[in-house]
Predict the structure.
Amino acid sequence: MSKFNDIPLNQRMVTALMQDCHANIQNAECNVYAFLDNPVGVGDHPNIIETIQEQLDIISKHKDRLNVLESTFHEF
């Protein structure tokens, strides 16, 4: 039997949710840095401030989810 199957399903789900949060946070952070470093290179985003705010909202949402997962489901 593989090690993956040895891990309880609920633990795998919580881990997957946490990894998804981390990935979404990193993706949005990369976008913000790209917009800040080269705002003229983003032609399809005429309102750069609004676009950055959208990415910050994504970061905030996923950090909140991560905090809930860590505080509520820490036993997994």
The chain is about 75% helix and 0% strand. The radius of gyration is 17 Å. The longest helix spans residues 9-37. Helices lie at 3-6, 9-37, 48-72.
